[in-house]
Amino acid sequence: MVSGPSLDEQAYVREGATQTAVKILVVGHFAVGKTTFIGAISEIEPLTTEETMTRAAESIDDLKGVQGKTTTTVAMDFGRLTISDRIVLYLFGTPGQQRFVQMWEDMARGALGALVLVDPERLADSFAVIDLIEQYGLDYAIAVNHFDGSPLRDEKALRDALDLLDDTPVVTCDARDERSSAEALITLVRHLQDRAH
């Protein structure tokens, strides 16, 4: 079921502002917190396509480490964040399961970059996601979603484990927290601006 506001022009452009719309993907493996991230940061009511997980999904989706998960994104999430009078980010959250990867190509079209959410307890699940983003030629930043009770990871160890280039930004965030999530996105935008110069 798709929920969210009706799409009218006033909902997406602040009155009197000259803005540049920037399409950003929020990606990551299954159950890493993409829907939560967009919900925490979007200045409009986010569009979500969350559905209740069924018994049929139990044999497909690995729930190890996320046993309390009862819903999953089946198409995309969408939100908006105005970061200045000139720049508004349109956030497109991708589903994390392998069976939905075919839609990534369409969603990546026109995107300026991607924020890759990573669970430090399931780093290996991020390899395929990072490979896809690189395949689409998108610049990206890594946002390590710090879950309650999980130890903070050493950045060098994370970089080594994920085989990141030296200039790929790595930040820690809490996908439930608006300020923390905004800082992760701002880090990505600064990286994209640096790459453009």
From TrEMBL:
Gene3D superfamilies: P-loop containing nucleotide triphosphate hydrolases
A Pfam family this chain is assigned to: ATP_bind_1
InterPro entries: Gliding_Motility_GTPase (IPR052705), Gpn (IPR004130), P-loop_NTPase (IPR027417)
Assigned keywords, A-Z: GTP-binding, Hydrolase, Nucleotide-binding
Keyword Nucleotide-binding: yes
Family: Belongs to the GPN-loop GTPase family.
Annotated protein name in UniProt: ATP/GTP-binding protein
